[in-house]
Records
---
Amino acid sequence: MRLPLRSFCIFRSLICRRPTTADARRRNSSSAAMRLVQFRRHGDGGSIIRVGVELGEGLGVVDLKAFDPSMPSTMRELLELGDKGLESAHRALASGQCLVDRADIQLLPPVSAPEKVVCVGMNYKDHCLEQNAPIPQKPIIFSKFPSAITGPYDDIILPTESQEVDWEVELAFVIGRRGKHIKEEDALSYVAGFTVANDVSARDWQMNRNGKQWLLGKTFDSFCPLGPALVTTDAVKDPHNLNIRCLVNGATMQNSNTEQMIFKTAALVAWVSKFVTLTPGDVFLTGTPPGVGVFKKPPVYLKRGDVVECQIDQLGSIINKVI
């Protein structure tokens, strides 16, 4: 059935609102690179995932699928398209069309259902010192199940099985193209962008139970808040000179800089790709600075009602209530 011309115009205006003068000013004042997000529109029934480009942190989002129906519906699919996908996203951003107000959407984790969530342990010297542990000579690698990933403003669920749940703010990055045995000098070309993560950890399970294997203590549901956006590499001036902080109920618990990382992004990509093939959408958590609850005197753990905010300069903040 053909829509009457008036109905078509009304429909298109709903999904492809043209920018206001204020929108244009915001876009022109922001970086030429991109903040990619996954989101749901309120009213979509909670099942339809979309990919968009933020005009800036907290501002409107360009809906890629509304701009071009051939565009994929998930970040992982967009990254699998390689340069073609990112160029299409650039065109959508430059058009200023198909804007969705932030009030009309729910931000999701920038990547959902990755093939791998690769984590790095004890990657800040001062974090090693606060637990009287030796400085690693090689990266310490472990993992979370992808099902632990949750959104930038979703709740952290305290499991009944643990009484010692802790926070860990971390710089995260996402792989943009497939690779194995990647040379360190080429490694950054395999990285799509950076985001903020909280490596929530059940210390009793990590340190004392399950044979002291870390996996179960790291991978309860909701133990990997991620977001708010995937900030492309060309939008981050220096990922290893970013202030990184964690606040609990407004009190600063961790306050450091990513320059303190022992193994930087390129070294981690090169090291892990010796063992496994990296694929678009793979998420790396690069380790936490000092200030976690378990090593405070006395130890401090999360409780219901707490609000955890993880911040990294240029990337943004994720804010999660503990329930």
---
Amino acid sequence: MAEEAILGYLQHNEEIKDSGEFAAERNIDHNEIVNVIKSLHGFRYVDAEDIKRETWVLTDEGKTYTATGSPEFQLFNAIPPEGIPKDELQKKLDPSVFKIGCAQAAKNKWVEMGKQLVTRKVQNVDDKVKGLLLQIQQGQGIGSDDIKALKARKLIVPQ
């Protein structure tokens, strides 16, 4: 199927500029298209050159945060305006969300981590991490500093 699509296209066109787009337009697996092109190239029926593109994709953890919000955002929202004892807050959240959320929310200066009581330092927060992850998921570009931060937190990986 892929071979017929490629040869049929090349009978009437000079070149296939991008095998990824070609495969997507025809609903054919990209790897299948690439394998056929390599085979045709090996037999010297076509000339081909590699095009490498690196994009960012969300890890499973990153995908979770697009739905639930970042740990720091979840932690902030679990704290009532009057504050909450640390052990009570810990019971309200998943252990990993609590641990990551405490570190990130304190780093962002959103919360005050007292010995017993955890309180908000600000009234409202914007879940920037969730916003960035959604942008990546939708194929939009983000700044290199944001990419470094998300990569360091293992929320995105290159593809």
---
Amino acid sequence: MDPQAKLIFTASLILGTTITVSSNHWIMAWAGLEINTLAILPLISKSHHPRAIEAATKYFLVQATASTLILFSSMTNAWQTGQWDIAQLTSPTSCLILTTAIAMKLGLAPFHFWFPEVLQGTSLITGLLLSTAMKFPPITLLFMTSQSLNPTLLAVLAILSTALGGWMGLNQTQTRKILAFSSISHLGWMAIITIYSPKLALLNFYLYALVTSAVFLILNSINTLKLTTLMTSWTKTPALSAALMLTLLSLAGLPPLTGFLPKWLIIQELTKQEMAPAATIIALLSLLSLFFYLRLAYCATITLPPHTTNHMKQWHTNKPTNISIAILAVLSTILLPISPMILTIV
């Protein structure tokens, strides 16, 4: 892709996100979401592969439908209350439509089917954008309207997302699809706590974006798209493979790594809100995700593949390791001891 075109699309992504995050009017928020959608489409389809074109088409159709529902929800609310302010969402019908629209935009179950297919059709860097930056504007809308939404509906969507994200990721062999179902599972944790503690949900999103960025960048550096390729990565990049194992375990939420912090705090907050059964269910369902994280970590650190592979082995890498990968990998593992300072800042 031409560097000038890439610069324009990247600037449009930043502009669309900024407009949505900083707006109080529904029309401005909708316009920012549309700018984001139109800017990411060329980045998804830049390889000109039929799978990439299919992914871009699916992404456009889903995002356009969700944006239409957001506009319809805001118009219904304005018609009944005379308010276009995002914080003044009081109509029950509008709240229901908005919850559905944001669930479609984020990929929450049962509106999650498009996300693994789109992520599978893109490169790892574009997949990183779809998993982190493109989810920030819809999550911001969810935070701004959290006091108006139905807590029971959000809890059901969250538990369903955690269950399906873990269950459907068990039999995957493509790393991009595994990370897609990982994203769906983590969105469930964010959705269930949004109404009770929006700041905690935001902290969860920040830490998820940090850890998953490290995973995506490491996989991109060692050029790994399948588990069979991952099994031979230890021979050419042992340091990156060890870092990948630690970041995957952090993504799974194992103590004493960084990813344990948001899960710990969310379970604590749900217990305070007298939602101990929901906290127990969502904690048990996260064990499904833990299984495929452990499988990925095992494949990343294995010294010899257990069966014959059909691709050429590379015994060294010609690409120097990016310093940003090292910084992200370190932050993905050691932030738990300084968690009181993080909570003070948030």
